[in-house]
Structure formats: C-alpha cells, structure tokens
Amino acid sequence: MQRLCFVRAAFEAGISLDALTRLYRALDAADANEAATQLAVLRQFVERRREALADLEVQLATLPTEPAQHAESLP
Fold first, then answer.
1. DSSP state at residue 3
2. Cα–Cα–Cα angle for 32, 30, 44, nearest 5°?
3. pLDDT of 69
4. 5-44 b/e with 16+ CB inside 10 Å = b?
5. Which of 23, 44, 42 is CA-nearest to residue 33?
6. Which residue in 19, 36, 55 sits closest to 6, CA to CA?
7. Farthest CA pair distance, the chain
8. Residue 75 — pLDDT band, cuts 50, 70, 90?
9. What is the pLDDT of residues 16-71, one digit of tens each?
C-alpha cells in the first residue's frame, strides 16, 4: 500500500511512470547503486519543480487584483 501511495503522489507531482519504473526495478533487484542514482534523479526533478513553482508564486503575487482599465478608443 505504501508503494501505491508513493506512486500516486509522484505521478501527481509530474514524475513519469518510466522514472518510477526505473526506481522500483532497482529497488526490487536490490541494486543499491542504481536505486541511489534513480532517487537522485527524482530529487533533482522535485527540486526543479519547487523552483518553478516558487517562480510562479512570485509572478502570481505581482498580478493585479483589480480589473484592467481599458484605454479609450483610439481615433
């Protein structure tokens, strides 16, 4: 059940099924080196996603909350 919950959370975070498959194949084969490599890849993905979300949050904070004032019709 723990694995299923992790897969769901990872998929919702945008991690591909292929990346999850590589991780779990390494874990199931008890290949510690490959599992560590795949975990590092996923951690990098999560960090990039966090940075992108932080940038988006900054942009959202700068959006005006009032309706835009439209200029009068130009001649």
1. H
2. 40
3. 72
4. eebeebeeeebeeebbebbeebeeeeeeeebeebeeebee
5. 23
6. 19
7. 74
8. low
9. 999 999 999 999 999 999 999 999 999 999 999 999 999 999 999 999 887 777 66
Distance of CA 40 to the CA centre of its chain: 14
The phi-psi region of residue 27 (left if phi > 0; otherwise alpha if psi is between -120 and 50; otherwise beta) is alpha
DSSP code string of 8-75: HHHHHTT--HHHHHHHHHHHHTT-HHHHHHHHHHHHHHHHHHHHHHHHHHHHHHHS-SSPPPPPPPP-
- How far, in whole angstroms, is CA 20 from its chain's centroid? 13
pLDDT at res. 8:
95
**Cβ neighbours, 10 Å, residue 45:** 16
